[in-house]
Fold:
Amino acid sequence: MENIKARTHLVFLEGLRGAAALYVVMHHAMSRYDLKPTSLAQKLLIAVFNHGHFAVNLFIVISGFSLMLPSIRKDYEVDTLNFYKRRMRRILPPYYFALALSIFLIPMYLDAGSSWTESVSFKSIALHVLLVNDFFSSDVYTLNYSLWSIPVECRIYLFFPLLLLVWRKAGPWLALTLAVALSAILGITLVFLSNTNPDINITTSGVNPYIILFAMGMLAADLSFSNSKRDCKMVRVPWIIILLVSFGVFIAYKGSLQYKLDVTSHMHDIIADVLFGIVCFALLGICSSENYKHNIFKYFEKMFSWRPLVFMGMFSYSIYLIHAPVLEIIYVQVMPLFKLSPFYASMTLIIMGTIFIVALGYVFFLIFEKPYLSRKRKEVVAEIAPADIVIPAG
Structure:
């Protein structure tokens, strides 16, 4: 098997992470104000920044892609215990530091009686520490509403060695089927539990449908970089056709929900997430494929290889972890001083709030995230020039 590290520099993965983190911050900044689509400017603002949930989907697809790359080099094998240790060291220390920061900031800078200050309780803290806060509707968004996805991703990592084992023994399509089955089984289990306990959250908990998106990322890496005989017939994947068709179906489906009476069904969300996962799958394939390096589609990779995005992608996890409480403090303590209309206040918070959070995120990264990176990942950080960034470790 050819060494994929010698074949390609996957700078765009960092750029995609950076773009996703920025979009999440801007989405939550816009969401702080009750904007009405009464003017073209407000309609455009809402249309552009009203879909932050899908940036989380992109993060998860990228995670599957990134973790699959070293496994391909090792013939689809993984040291399970060592993998769990590395993931815990990479994910949990910054998460707990961000949690502690949120608990510290909320009572100091937010008014007593607000939904944020009322969320600080022993129960909520314990659920976050145990990584099960996403299972309960009353606590999924408490303390720091961006932390709901971290337990979900950690749970997906538990299944990665199993998915990889099936991948090696029976091929990618059976492994993807297993991901769908796990998603369905665990999702149905949550629905059953919610019938006995109404506080059980079935919309953003467990692994449903996110393990499917994770497996899509794995598949994109496998189709792009595996040289095994099993995959020779799939070398020329029509990535651009998949991207255009899946994006068209995704937009059409999302638009159709505007005309449905029942748009709160969890199944609508699952379908939309999976459709967007296919879009992300195709985007990663286009950026990875040598077939698109010399035509108009090369600009996908070039766009996400833009150095500022690559730089922010380096500490996108820190940006994601801390942005919610910091954004809330700016909204409560600073924005009223300007006495702006909701539209202009939203624009100001999007621009100035994002700049401040990126700067603070970098400081958080240096203090609370960088010390826990793997040696290889630290080398990537130390040599941030795009040509030197190869195969980020997720």
Q: What stands out?
A: The mean pLDDT is 85. The radius of gyration is 21 Å.
